[in-house]
């Protein structure tokens, strides 16, 4: 057995809630530069002509984007918006991941055998609920990641300044900009991520191909990351563009998607796919492996030990 041993006592909802938020923060700390590179690639071309040509593109590929940012803005630019990102994960992942099992049990009425439909419903519910809780932190994170330090004034000087500036200039609704595409995105992401992880893990255990330890968690998480990237990339690009847009640039998320299609073509919806996959794949592996270990460690720590006789 690799890592902490599985406990006989199932983890409580509180353990899952805290474990999910903590694991997501750890995963964000490790993979944040990839997420920043993804955002820069996704917004590239939105203010240019009908097509952003290779010659006019500032960022090219994952490594090229990271190297360009380090050269022109400094290495710390890769962590623009990290504070808001950690705030987001602590509130966001705690809900969408930590409450998933509880909501799934609610839909299955406590049955141990959950259908795919029940799992999808649980994933959609916790994903949408998480957006309702953490949307302002997501808006601030994207704005910070999108702003370049070189060649002009920065839009926001700090995380607190970003919250205040957005609320002052765009109103309270500005902090909830992009809620609709984000609800759709996170319902999709949660279903693809959690349900796929759930199904792959169950299949591996039932077929006795692996035991419930680190290799199984790693394999399940990697598969979940790939499936999530393929399914959620188009919605993710629209969400990023719309949340980062200037006031009045797009009338709605649908208008943003239509503008992208007209000006940049269908391929625009998969801009930043490679960093998205690298980020989601690595994020899923770190998050799920850490989450599984934290659940076992916290459950063991919280379980009363029998006094020796």
Name the descriptors.
309 residues; mainly alpha; 10 helices; 68% helix; globular; membrane; transmembrane helix; L-aspartate transmembrane transporter activity; malate transmembrane transporter activity; MCP_dom_sf
Provide structural commentary:
It is found in: Mitochondrion inner membrane. It comes from Octodon degus (Degu). Keywords: Membrane, Mitochondrion, Mitochondrion inner membrane, Repeat, Transmembrane, Transmembrane helix, Transport. The chain is mainly alpha-helical and 309 residues long. The protein has a domain at 94-141 and 153-177. The chain is built from ten helices and no strands. The longest helix is centred in the N-terminal third of the chain and has 31 residues, at 13-43. The radius of gyration is 20 Å and the shape is globular. The model has no long low-confidence stretch (mean pLDDT 83).
Summarize the structure.
This protein is 68% helix and 0% strand. The protein is an all-alpha fold.
Name the quaternary structure: single chain
Major sheet description: none
If helices are DSSP runs of H or I spanning 4 or more residues, what is the number of helices?
10
Give the topology string: H per helix, E per strand. Answer: HHHHHHHHHH
- Judged by helices, strands and strand pairing, the structural class is mainly alpha
Helix content: 55-70%
Strand content: under 5%
Estimate the mean pLDDT confidence: 83
* N-end to C-end Cα span: 29 Å
Structural shape: globular
Radius of gyration: 20 Å
DSSP summary, beta strand count: 0
Which consecutive residue ranges, at least 5 long each, have pLDDT under 50?
Answer: none
